[in-house]
Amino acid sequence: MAQLWGGRFTKETDQAVYDFNASILFDQKLLRQDIAGSTAHAKMLGACGILTAEETEAIVNGLADILHDVESGTLEISSRFEDVHSFVEATLTERIGEPGKKLHTGRSRNDQVALDMRLYCRDAADEIKELLLELLRAIHNRMKETTEVFMPGFTHLQKAQPVTFAHHIGAYFEMFRRDYGRILDLRARMNECPLGAGALAGTTYPLDREMTASLLGFDCPTRNSMDSVSDRDYVIELLSALALIHMHLSRFSEEIILWNSNEYRFIEMDDGFSTGSSIMPQKKNPDIAELVRGKTGRVYGALMSMLTTMKGIPLAYNKDMQEDKELTFDAIETTKACLPLFTGMFETMKLNPEVMKRSAMLGFTNATDAADYLVRKGVPFRDAHGVIGRLVLYCIDKGCAIEDLSLEELKRISPVFEDDLYDAISLETCVEKRNTIGAPGKTAMQKVIEENEAFLSACEK
Ligand code: ARG
């Protein structure tokens, strides 16, 4: 064990205590962020005259070398150190001598770790934002191709009214678009620099906090040193956005699993995204969709753990907060793995438009439109509802769709029916007539698709 304290202690830390306390096994993921933060801190100390130009240069170059050597595999992060911060400082001092010991001037591991986590979450937000955009683009492309692919829309998982595939997946476009917006919002809120807050009460050195903030790409320094080292609300906001992304991915996965089933056959999963069975040769399983759905649990878990960990901690830093790391890293990595796989699966799945259309036709999804037809002929809606109900019952008995009945049969149930019924309740008409904002009709959908196109090209700028 290599520890950062000693003076006050008359006895070595117990090994089990040391191991329990240490975070190096997981916080080494923060190396890049830790080095970026230390580099900015050293440059600022140099600019403020707290370090000489030579010391600053030695530190900055030494830090760059450490990063390079770890990334190229010539330097190993040893678990002899308590955490990534001690590893970097000790390695630097071992390599460049005296100036290395001055790096921690005016800084505490409390503001250091708060900075590292912020930088890590900010990087994650930027990457996840891009992955969301790729998924949105994939949905958009499919929407453009499927404004005339009819399918049943469901409520209670019962066929309800006809929609189009474009309209159905357009619902997910909206969800992921809001997820994208949430990432932008939380990124903007977290973009304040905690470095310089010290252990909790700032420092007596004349640090230039504006400078470190701007070197690290932050909008400004944080405004209260106690808050800076003790809150992790930005972690929770990110986890909560990830939880919502996974909720949406999970629902979409569930639908894809249903659509891909032998019973639905609305889509067929590409072979490259399917798995087989070790015993049943006929199987082609949607494991990717199931795993994406399943992994939602661990992301929700991370959010709940973090909320619970942070509850009731008095100001300012407490070691409880070290618990923020593993679950946050896991949730971020899970999301970064799921999004591109889901996008690939979605892009490559094949649609069966004929099967979808037949399913819509055989499910009485035009029953509401048949009732509306009677209303247009002067029948009060409540009566029309009853007539069509009886009609549906008759069809169920006969095993056919409403449009399969002859005019005579129809007239036996209500004399109001005429030849123009068939056109009024065709799938095409049922969908086409729905052109209010947000509805599945082609004109309404075309407008949405144009807006989505504009949104996506604005995001690319
Ligand atoms: N490993 C610690 C963490 O993640 C770093 C901060 C340590 N600060 C302290 N006062 N012990 O929270």
Percentage of residues in strands: under 5%
The overall pLDDT, averaged over residues, is 95
Shape: elongated
What ligand species are in this complex? Answer: arginine
* Order of strands across the main sheet: 1-2
Helix/sheet category = mainly alpha
Q: Give the helix proportion (percent range).
A: 55-70%
Rg over CA atoms, rounded to whole Å, is: 31 Å
> What order do the helices and strands follow?
HHHHHHHEEHEHEHHEHHEHHHHHHH
The helix tally amounts to 20
Task: Compute the separation of the termini in Å.
Answer: 50 Å
Note the main sheet. Answer: 2 strands, antiparallel
Query: Total number of β-strand segments?
Result: 6
Quick gist of this model?
This protein has 461 residues and is mainly α. The chain has helices at residues 15-21, 24-27, 31-47, 53-72, 84-96, 98-102, 109-145, 165-190, 209-215, 225-230, 233-260, 287-310, 324-348, 353-361, 367-376, 381-398, 407-413, 421-424, 427-432, 442-460; strands at residues 150-155, 158-164, 192-193, 220-221, 267-268, 350-351. The protein contains 20 helices and 6 strands.
Description of the molecule:
With 461 residues, the chain is mainly alpha-helical. The chain has 20 helices and six strands. α3 packs across α7 (109-145) and α7 packs antiparallel against α8 (165-190). The longest helix is centred in the N-terminal third of the chain and has 37 residues, at 109-145. The two termini are 50 Å apart. 39% of the residues are buried. The model has no long low-confidence stretch (mean pLDDT 95). Bound molecules: arginine. Arginine binds at residues 23, 27, 83, 109-110, 113, 317, 319, 321-322.
